[in-house]
Design goal:
homodimer, 482 residues, alpha/beta, Aspartate Aminotransferase, domain 2, 7-stranded mixed β-sheet, 13% strand, globular
């Protein structure tokens, strides 16, 4: 117990410093440096035990050489920030150390999951919040669920007979969508070639006419168009596909409509921004990751399904040792057989607790504030010297995509190969310097024909306008002489 | 911060009471009772925030109506116990709140995972601990990985072209094996009918001759035998399939051999018991869940693979926004593209920390002690009046399977339908009474033609001989008058 309290001292100290802007975001070292053992921090495991004192030192070192994802200037991923209530929820969850598969050993958590999923379905707009759902270990697995249940809905015999019982099935998703749809296609036996990528407009939104043309093409080849994924908040551009128009096409061709709102889902909680989800109530399934835009600690992802019972139909195998029918309580609360997992971590409690503590309006305020901040960034850089926006127009989500053009490049012809080659190297160089100086972190990537650009996202509740100002200054400071 | 410290007070108090045998294991309530709101414990979410004071009350209530899985008399699942170092590891993990996909944001954890997986591969016996692996969200997903990579090894074109690019593929696993193999077969597009169940001896171990006969049968039908799962520690009987004999057959027919050591894996750390894994070094892949027998908090499961690079080959999709090739560090440390997940929870730290604190010998002592305790139980009941063993012989793992026969049934003809029907109801009744009195918890289930019996397992480091004695007394107290 004394040990645990000493650890808590280390952790609360870490949290305090994380919120202090004078603390570095990270203290970068290369893999070989850490493997060689920094100042006695030895990662190797051995036969003999270490003292509790040494264990505390190990804990301190682990934090020291890590990355402060809760730091107000950490903008590197979609999941940032450190919510204290969410953290408390995780600490309680790990103390309770139980498993979601049965009501028997997780009565409270099972009910919390059920009630929370219902609230989420209400926000999607399904009548009375009816339907189904489950928390999964992340958005990729949630998206995988959507493909599985779509297949089960139209070709239930695949569960027993395999893919040979169905015609060649085709999935459709935007070229800007998350790679997990393609991964699911490969894993589940469709084949990645049967995941057709849809063209987008310059803002990264699916062009409905392209979807319809590609469906017709697939049908003409004699294949079966099964599933469309509409992305609500794409990873790089933050684009929202036009759900209503896609839903019309799905209805016309009798296809499953999934909405991947892993990143955008939080906007459903904002009266100001939820219109971007217009039509989501027509979806058959929705992925929504509270661990992204809503600041819930990792992992917390939900797959929500309009049709009740289909998750169990798709996945149940009725294991006798877990799901005994002759228990003394209502065994419909044993939800584990719906999952592709057996044991399942309790991801619900931290989210439930944050919802209690903030209320729906607290999440709304957080979302609105993050979108305001990204609009602030957009307004600040769109006409600023040395910046070029990757696409025009106010961001739909908090993603702001831009190039920083160092003075040495500004005179070059923008369409020349030399310019492109040089510009491609700017973001990685600035990023490397950021990490080495430890001041801030922001993501970059190429996209299609576009060379490396920065993708700024805001999901951290601790971020302020001054942090956005800092980021701009820092990019200019580090990039000016490139 | 004050709030966090108050929560820690609640949690440490909970932990203290959990280890106190006078505390109940659970305070059972039916779903409708909890939903109606016990003494003001309101599970519903609302628009408005609650006070921090109320949040602390909610935390207390959540624990109060839950199940103490760390209690020395909780024997209900394969995962039991509450290791304080492991708990500390989880608290630190949630404070660091990062993601395993890149070295960039999880440098220390990525290296810990790599070193720990290598140690585990060394224990399996692969030369120099070479190979591959990843931590996944549980044994079912780890087993799913094994099926995916087996398919990729023999039919890599399935990744792009789908199952139609391969002949009809068949998986083999024991009728006693975990249901996740069948789930994987259904999910990945093989179809559950193409998961052939193997017959076992009376101890629940696969009969190699049956495997070979079934392979020949499948080949004769023109299908392709792809994969055999050998279980090392079956869920109900704790049986270890004969790996060497199965490996011989896999070699003969050029098939993938997976060993599901989700439950048994810990025994690899015991010099006394690791012989039960004899031949495991011949496996192509191994599932091993430290969150079961080794007492690591949930979730902590590894899939280990002999061939290096095959996980990435099978799963990579090279997402540009995460796995940029032009980073400043050695990007071979960005391991996220090996996974079917994108975001991935940090499951390694608590395990690494426990290994540091206990050393390999600490795990060995824990394993040996648990197996001794189950032998103690076995010796105590095998000839005791009112007990009948489900199978004869010393348990291979900590699973002890038995019927308790109340006095009213002892005079009945054991082969009669009346006896079977009555006996089938005994374990559920005793279990219900256990839960209502909150004194202890142990699992039960039917298996094949065998009516409901108790499955006792020991993985809790806090359990003592006196707790085994207590369990026996409690079963007799509650069951005597049935």
């Amino acid at each position: 117990m004394q040990f645990l309290l000493e650890l808590v001292g280390i952790l609360t100290n870490y949290v305090r410093k994380t919120f202090d802007r004078s603390t570095k975001v990270l203290d970068f070292h290369h893999p070989h440096q850490l493997l060689e053992g920094m100042e006695g921090f030895n990662l190797e495991l051995s036969d003999q035990p270490e003292s509790l004192e040494q264990i505390l030192v190990d804990c301190r070192d682990t934090l020291k050489y890590g990355v402060r994802t809760g730091h107000p200037r950490f903008f590197n991923q979609l999941s940032t920030g450190l919510d204290i209530i969410g953290l408390a929820g995780e600490w309680l969850t790990s103390t309770a150390n139980t498993n979601m598969f049965t009501y028997e050993i997780a009565p409270v958590f099972v009910l919390m999951e059920q009630l929370t999923l219902k609230k989420m379905r209400e926000m999607i707009g399904w009548p009375s919040g009816e339907g189904d759902g489950i928390f999964s270990p992340g958005g990729a697995i949630s998206n995988m669920y959507s493909v599985m249940i779509a297949r089960y809905k139209y070709f239930p015999e695949v569960k027993t007979k395999g893919m040979s019982a169905a015609p060649r099935l085709v999935l459709f998703t935007s070229e800007h969508s998350h790679y997990s749809i393609k991964k699911a296609g490969a894993a589940l036996g469709f084949g990645s070639e049967n995941v057709v990528l849809l063209s987008t407009d310059e803002r990264g939104r699916v062009i409905p006419a392209d979807l319809e043309a590609k469906i017709l093409d697939v049908k003409q080849k004699g294949y079966h168009p099964l599933f469309v994924n509409a992305t609500a908040g794409s990873t790089v551009y933050g684009a929202f596909d036009p759900i209503n128009e896609i839903a019309d096409i799905c209805e016309k061709y009798d296809m499953w409509l999934h909405v991947d709102g892993a990143w955008g889902g939080g906007l459903l909680m904002s009266r100001k921004h939820r219109h971007k989800f217009s039509g989501v109530e027509r979806a058959n399934s929705v992925t929504w990751n509270p661990h992204k835009m809503m600041g819930v600690p990792l992992q917390c992802s939900a797959i929500l399904v309009r049709e009740k019972g289909i998750l169990a139909g798709c996945n149940s195998m009725c294991a006798g040792y877990l799901f005994q029918p002759d228990k003394q309580y209502d065994v419909s609360y044993d939800t584990g057989d719906k999952a592709i997992q057996c044991g399942r971590h309790v991801d619900i409690f931290k989210f439930w607790l944050m919802w209690k503590a903030k209320g729906t309006i607290g999440f709304e305020q957080h979302i609105d504030k993050c979108l305001d901040l990204s609009q602030y960034l957009y307004d600040k850089i769109r006409n600023r010297q040395g910046y070029e926006m990757v696409f025009q127009g106010v961001p739909q989500h908090t993603n702001v995509c831009f190039w920083y053009i160092p003075p040495s490049l500004r005179g070059l012809e923008h369409n020349s190969e030399e310019y492109r080659e040089k510009l491609h190297k700017v973001a990685p160089k600035i990023k490397a310097m950021m990490m080495e100086s430890g001041t801030t972190m922001v993501g970059y990537q190429p996209q299609g024909q576009k060379v490396n650009f920065f993708r700024m996202v805001v999901s951290n509740p601790a971020a302020l306008q001054s942090d956005i100002d800092f980021l701009i200054d820092e990019i200019e400071r580090l990039g000016h002489d490139l």
